[in-house]
Amino acid sequence: MSSPPWSPTREPHGRYEELAQVDEYGTMRPTPQNDDVSDQASDDALVHHDDSSGWAQTPAWNICLNAAMYCAVPLSMPATLAAGGWFWGTVFFAYATFATYWTGLVIGRVYLEHPRLATYPAMASEAFHNLALERTNGDARVARNWRTWSRRAVKITQFATFYLDTVTQMIYVAQYFAQLDLGWFGTGAGRDEGDEIQSDSPAGRPRLCQWAWVLVVWAVSVPVMQIPTFHASRWVIVPAVAVLAVSVALFLYEVAVVVKPWSCEPGPSFGGVTLPSAMVSLGNMAYAYGGHGVFPESLREMREPHRWPSVMRWMYAGLVPAYVVCAVVGYAGYGRFAQANINLNFPKNWVNGVSITLQLLQCYYLIFYTNVVLVLMVETRWGIDPTKTWRPRTSLPVIGSTSPAVARMLFRTAFLGTQVALAEWR
Asked: Mind listing the UniProt keywords for this protein, alphabetically (predicted)?
């Protein structure tokens, strides 16, 4: 079946799987470089995709589940739709879905043609370099400047975005811990002031302060951060996705079976959309496809990168229906009172307690997934091979010579510590 004329993957045979030079095992062969795409200001040459690289080990299903897991925020969709209302929320959702799917396919094609461009900064710098050559009639000096500065700008933006996203995930996990500490596994069926909170804490107060829970998050995150690469996480991602699926099922059960908010008096109200709230809706719709931010790095680790279109199709086939169902059910039920933490709309019962626990585990995994791109960026620069454990030894500032595993543990623990400090900062 041929791709449509507007498809970025359209080729004479209709599938860009055929663009890849692969051997009998489906592994990428090194492609001859006839032009300068190495981005000498970058360290991407250290990790490019070829037959001898230790990076290219991850199967397509693993990459698909990892990318979907990083995107998936179905329980935030009711509040996201509420911020934009039925009309603008739907428009923003359609735009974010189409734009990220389209550009995801473009990224896949770029990587297959230029496998040395294995990160967002490398791809962006090459795009600006070529654009500058075209706009300046081949002025190589200007083009090189554009390549250097665009790479730096994108790298800083990517690093800051992912760094702050991890801080957000830490705060979410600490919040979920605090909610459970308030007795969300209690047997009460409602959230009225007269309901007894089933908790050991006095007067319904948590036994630990928020800052203490953030330290707990740091302690429990250090072990999972020792997973060196996406490939090494392949047996963690399966239960993580299962947790996500159960969370969605519990959400639907809580709304449709337990609460039935549309039957309440007064029922849900709609409207109240303002320009600021609409922009919040647009931003959160884009965030719902945040896995887009690691597409090049995911391709770098794929054993069969020519299967990227299949990864995109399966990922969006799972995400889009889940988003639509959760957004419509939640917004129809709670209207503009749908909260970003939808569990706050639910009664304190065991179902909600399980839901909070599962979301806690989901965010716990996302702390690793968000950070792995950043730590690999630094570790490859320092010569720490993520595919090795004890050899070869590497030299770190202050620490001196040590094994890759110890170097990863020390660096990643300290890196998490800086994020904890920011999460604690008021």
From this structure: Amino-acid transport, Membrane, Transmembrane, Transmembrane helix, Transport
The two three-digit tokens of residue 216, written as one number: 């707990």
For residue 22, the tally of other CB atoms under 10 A from its CB is: 16
Residues whose CB falls within 8 Å of the CB of residue 121, separated by 6 or more in sequence, listed in order = 42, 151, 152, 154, 155, 158
Q: Is the pLDDT at 150 greater than 50, yes or no?
A: yes
| pTM reported for the whole predicted model | 0.74
Angle, CA of 44, 48 and 54, to the nearest 5°: 120
pLDDT at 24 > cutoff 80: no
Q: Is the pLDDT of residue 191 over 60?
A: no
Scored b (16 or more CB within 10 A) or e, 159-194 reads eeebbebbbebbbbbbbbbbbbbbbbbbebeeeeee
Domain region containing 304 = 41-209+231-367
Q: Is the pLDDT of residue 263 over 70?
A: yes
**DSSP of 222-241:** HHHTT--STGGGHHHHHHHH
Residue 38, classed as helix, strand or coil, is coil
What are the CA-CA distances from residue 380 to residues 6, 119, 269, 394 (Å)?
A: 38, 12, 52, 11
Half-sphere exposure of 277 (CA within 13 A, CB side): 16
| Assigned token pair, 130 | 């070529």
Assess contact for 49 and 297: CB atoms under 8 A.
no
Q: Is residue 160 part of a domain?
A: yes
Q: Kindly state whether residue 403 falls inside one of the protein's structural domains.
A: no
Average pLDDT (202-223) is 73
What is the distance between the alpha carbons of residues 273 and 98, in angstroms, rounded to a whole number?
24
At residue 42, the pLDDT reads: 40
Strand partners, 401: 395
Q: Which of 189-193, 254-258, 292-296 has the lowest mean pLDDT?
A: 189-193
What token pair was written down for 13? 């045979």
Q: How far apart are CA 231 and CA 377, in angstroms?
A: 16
One-letter amino acid for residue 308 of the chain: W
Distance CA 35, CA 195 (A): 70
Place of tokens 């702050």: 164
SS3 367: helix
Tell whether 17 is covered by a domain. Answer: no
Instruction: Dig out the tokens for 240 from the structure.
Output: 């993580």
